[in-house]
Every structure is written in structure tokens, then in C-alpha cells.
Amino acid sequence: VIDVEYELAVDYTYWLFIGFIDAIVQMPDGTCWILEHKTLTREPDFYELFFSLQASGYMWAAQRDPVLSQLDIKGVIFNLLLKTEVKPPKVLKSRKLSKDKRQATSIEMYRQAIADNGLNPADYEQFILGIDPNRYNKRKKIVPTPAMIDWFDDTIRTVGMEMCSNPVIYPAQARDCTWCDFKLLCTWVRNGLDWRSIVSAKFVERGSIDIKAMEELSDA
Questions:
Q1: Sheet holding 15-26, edge to edge
Q2: SS3 category, 157
Q3: Which residues form the PD-(D/E)XK endonuclease-like domain (predicted)?
Q4: Domain ranges (residues) in the chain
Q5: Contacts of 67 (CB under 8 A, 6+ apart)
Q6: Which 3 state secondary structure label does DSSP give 151?
Q7: How far apart are CA 79 and CA 76, in angstroms?
Q8: Predicted structure pTM score
Q9: What burial letters (b/e) apply to 25-56, b meaning 16+ CB within 10 Å?
Q10: DSSP alpha helix (H) spans, 6-133
Q11: How far are the Cα atoms of 67, 112, 121, 174 from residue 124, in angstroms, in the given order?
Q12: 88-123: string of b/e by CB count within 10 Å (b at 16+)?
């Protein structure tokens, strides 16, 4: 592990992009990767991760970060942690253990259940060999192509220009509200409270942005 909770700071012409990377790791072959932890209710397939904005965005930022750009980051490793409650195997009416492959159990729990119920390990060895030890914790390597990183560059530039063009802003109730930086302000507005009293204490006014100059940059 090279670093954990690494803070990215990318100076991108008119904007400063700041974010955090879970970890930077170096593999035995010497290659360096970004490590991203993800807790999920289901396992995403390879293409879902490959075409996600997150992988391309990390590589885009790594190529521009003064420190990471020196490491020649190869790609992103997603450490997938499935939020599944693992339980001991079901004990059948026959007092034998269930061999249903769909049950959420582990090799360790299955062996312990064999011992606790005084059963013959040989009767279950073949089934245990079929249990994936990494069923609830898998790692997938994603290497975005140069074209995907260029596409992200175009996308983030377009989004940035739109955000800084004084657009009409209105709240949209969604799961994203949980981590929105303006959640407190939005809550006060919706409840008819004096939201202006917290603006100066909690927020900083955004400076003026030269929209025309950004448009010229986009056309370049």
C-alpha cells in the first residue's frame, strides 16, 4: 500500500477538483493501481464497472495529479464487498446439513456446523469444495481506454460549464440528498426557516466565472 485516503487536487483551468481515493497500491509486478472499496447489495458485472464514470474519472484525475502522474497508474481495482448476512447452513429434519448452493454461508461456518452437529466431514467435503471463498468479497481490475478518459474530459468540462452558467436550480428529492453539501440549506428553505442566517456561517459564495473564456476553451 502506497497511500490511503489520498486527497486529489486537480487544477483544471477554471476549476479546482478535489476528492479522495481510498488507497493507492503497488502489485508484486511493480504496477500501481487505484483501490476503490465498494459495498453493494448485488455484484455488478464487468461491463458495468468498465463503463462507469468512476473508473474513467479516477484515471483522468490521476493523470493530472502532480503526485499520481509520476506513478504511472495502470487502472482501478474495485474491492467489492457484498452486504449479505452470512449464516450457518440450514439443518434439515434429517439432522443433516443442507447442500443448497443458494444459501448464504461460508466454508468456515459450514465446517463448524459439521463439527457442532457431530456429522462426518467426508459426507460434505465435495460440497464444501464448491463454495466460493470469495463469494462476498471480490476484486475486479478495470483499465479505462484513452478514448474513455478523453470522453470523461469532455463530459466534465461540459458539466462544469453548465454548473457555472447560473442555471435555474431546484431541489429534486433523491438518494443523493444524503451526501449533498447543501442538504442543511435545502432543509431550512423547505421548512420555511430563515435560511439566510446560516449562509454566511456555513457557506462561501462562489466567485465569478468567465463563461465566454470557458466556451472558447471548449471549442479549442
A1: 3-12, 15-26, 32-40, 73-82, 137-142
A2: helix
A3: 4-186
A4: 3-83+136-160, 85-134, 169-219
A5: none
A6: helix
A7: 10
A8: 0.66
A9: beeeeeebbbbbeeeeeeeeeeeebbebebbb
A10: 46-50, 53-62, 107-116, 125-129
A11: 52, 12, 6, 47
A12: bbeeeeeeebebeeebebbeebbeebbeeeeeeeee
Q: Which contiguous run of DSSP H or E holds residue 8? A: strand 3-12
- 104 grid coordinates: 448464504
Q: Are strands 3-12 and 15-26 parallel, antiparallel or unpaired?
A: antiparallel
DSSP letter assigned to residue 192: T
Q: Please give the grid coordinates belonging to residue 168.
A: 435555474
pLDDT per position as a tens digit, 201-212:
777 776 554 545
Q: Please write the tens of the pLDDT for every residue from 127-178.
A: 999 988 888 888 899 999 999 999 999 998 888 888 777 777 777 777 778 8
What would the grid cell of residue 105 be?
454461508
